[in-house]
Amino acid sequence: MLSYLLLYCLHRFNGERSLAAVYHLLTGKKSAQTLQDSKWFQLERVFGIYKTLSLGELEQAAMQLLQNQWIVSVDERSYVLTEAGKEALHEWLLSATFFTHLNGLLYDTVDRLFWYRLSLTVQTLSNLVHRHQFIPIHRHEATFAWVRTYLMAKNPHALAQALHDELHTICSSLSEEEATIFTLRLTSFERIGWTNEQIAACLQTDPLYVQLTFQHVLHYMMKRAEREPKQFPILHNVIKDLVKSVSLTLSAQKTYEWLIKGKTIAEIARIRHLKPNTIEDHVVEIAANVRDFSIAPFVAEEARRKIIEAATRLKTRQLKKIRDAVGEEISYFEIRLVLAKAGESSAS
Amino acid sequence: MHLEQRLYETFGYRTFRLGQKEIIEDVLAKNDVLAMLPTGGGKSVCYQLPGYVLSGSVLIVSPLVSLMEDQVQQLKMRGEKRVIALNSFLPDEMKKRALANLQHFRFIYASPEILQSPLWQKALKQIAISLFVVDEAHCISQWGHDFRPDFLKLGAIRRELGNPPCLALTATATKDVRNDIIETLQLTNVRQHLYSVDRPNIAIQVECVDSVDEKLARVLHYAKTLQGPGMIYASSRQWTEVLARKLEAEGIEGVAYYHGGMDSEQRMLVQHQFLCDQLQLVCCTNAFGMGVNKENVRYVVHFHLPSQLEAYVQEIGRAGRDGKNSLAILLYTHGDEDMVQSLIEAELPTEEQVRLFMAYGNDVRSMVEINEVQWRLLHYMVEKERTKARTVEEIIANIQAAIEARKHWKRSKLRQMRSFLFQPFCLREQIVSYFEQRLEKKPAHCCNRCTFSLDSYQFKRQDEPVRAFRGWEEELKRMFWNEEYT
């Protein structure tokens, strides 16, 4: 299962990124580079979906793919798919139903908070209804506080009924397997939720498949809860203050605030005691993430046109190749900015 | 008010357990106290009860965030609201509130890292701390079995906080380690309460078998015949998975594995399932156990020998917390110590890591694989050497020497563990004398050097059938519906 996931990433990267980039992508490293990669190569959905992955496991999966002759090495630790590899990927994608709603980048960390709240609410209500003391299944102060406030002065029986109905509606619109996986993960009165492994054993499938399907169900649920407050009043309450419009690293966020105030890169670098290079990284990150952020102040229209033209003609996202084509008067910073913006518009 | 009365009103116990009252009396008299109580001996009562008598807050330093959270959870379940755990995961808003109202809390649990933050130090300095508790105090000593370099700074922190009386608690500290604790925490006129490490209700068995296959056969046999719940300790993550799968394949129900490489939610699920008796058997590394307060663990099997006796005593000590007869079985086959040794050495920083760390600092983590234990040790060693040595090469050389010394020490600890298996003497007496104590009384079921029969442990009652899953619709209904009210 992991090898297919790797195959999928390698296919999108098309030999232009190393295994390390796949690792950072799947484990959800919040660096400007990884965030951009996920957009440029349209790999947003798998961003951060496998946080416990180790580099060793990934290397092993790559070995496996090499042995199957599904990939060949093009550079140190960079690979492209063979015809057989493409075929295998194609076949697998047909069965990868969890890709439908999975969006790791959009829901990164928010999905965890959503799940904490939802599952703790379920556990609490279920035990209240059955008049039973319990130990919370999550250790997360912010979630405790939220659940406490939310349940305050509400009738637990009525709320339990209403939440049951909302979850029932959601589950009814899922496949039998998806609904089963979701329900088994919940902890309630007299039943602690099952682990991915236990569910996988029960359904005779792969634990990673269970994990990804579970995340896909969560993302689907979050999307509906966000858009249909009337249909899902409780779930909407769970999510409404969690979704953020843009995801920027904290440091880039600060740079963004200074940019809005009209400071230049050099000025911000001085104010924040950071290298201008770092601030440039931030600007690229902002360009990739903030839709109405204009790169015009940083790149001349002529340069922008040249970069796009070179990238399209060479079918590449590799900075070095584009730089060679457009000439030295255009900086790497400009190229990265343009690509970040282009990735953003083609992905949306 | 009598202490007994207080005990009953607050904790619901009629009598103190061995040593608790004497320790509490010394604590209330504002003495510095070093207390060694057997595993599961009720250490937390020793500072929680004084929390209700002394005015001011009790500050408890604990090595593991999860351990802290377990304790806080247990206090809250008992209705104590004035308790907080300070760690880096505390959400901003709660942090702000806690900082403003710190004196409000009766019990303040804190990680050593948090105590180094100037912000928290300042806040703690402004409140009255009636007692400074160091839980699992053996972590202070670099010769303790779970060395946490951060603990070394606790002495200075305590001084910063105006030297409140200190209570250091541990279950497993040899004399050297105890001296380290006293010195590091700068305990003065310290009152030592050292109780026997012995747990009389745990019978001890050591078995040497010819091969790994035979070990597997023994584990299977025990899983089939012994009354659970049980735990099986293995020294690698991979082995815990192998064992769990093997047992499952042989038809044992309710088995899971647990190790530090799992994501935290999955770990939590296994822990809770075990606590709620939904699992009969957990195959685990030593990541499982600390803070798992399960009373009815009936047996602990060691599939590999632990790296030292201190760890062994901690681990078998998870059995029989309810005082009922329990069993500890260690399985050994020729060559196990080599595997354990290589695992131990994998916890020490390598020369490459030291060099890269000196050159690139924290970035080293994305350059080479480096585990948590290596990382802690590396940090500690470099920090220590930087204050003494002048050149980078000198620092590297000194660290290499320190690593060698540590390797040497660990090997000798492992040798002692191994000789425990092969000495023809009573196992219980060996354990006790390792901690420089004498065994007062031998229980009837002592160990397989003395005589005892496994017969009384073999009976396995029929386990209750695991609740069946009848599809998601039924399950959702069951969760939210209580028939009594309809």
Structure, explained:
The complex is a heterodimer of chains A (348) and B (486). Chain A is an all-alpha fold and 348 residues long. Helix content of chain A is 65%, strand content 3%. Chain A has 3 domains: 1-95, Arc Repressor Mutant, subunit A (Orthogonal Bundle); 109-240, no CATH class; 250-346, no CATH class. A two-stranded antiparallel ribbon of chain A has the order 1-2. In chain A, a hairpin with a 2-residue loop joins strand 1 and strand 2 (78-81). Chain A is globular, with a radius of gyration of 23 Å. By secondary structure, chain B is of the alpha/beta class. Chain B has 3 domains: 3-194, Rossmann fold (3-Layer(aba) Sandwich); 202-334 and 423-480, P-loop containing nucleotide triphosphate hydrolases (Rossmann fold), CATH 3.40.50; 340-415, no CATH class. In chain B, strands 3-4-2-5-6-1-7 form a 7-stranded parallel beta sheet, sandwiched between helices. In chain B, strand 3 (83-86), helix 5 and strand 4 (107-110) form a beta-alpha-beta unit. The N and C termini of chain B lie far apart (48 Å). The mean pLDDT of chain B is 90. The chains are: A mainly alpha (348), B alpha/beta (486). Chain A binds chain B through residues 51-52, 54-56, 122, 125-126, 129-131, 133, 135-142, 145, 157, 160-161, 163-164, 167-168, 171, 176, 179-180, 182-184, 186-198, 201-202, and chain B through 66, 69, 73, 77, 89-91, 93-94, 248, 256, 261-263, 265-266, 268-270, 272-273, 275-276, 278, 369, 467, 469, 471-473, 475-482, 485.
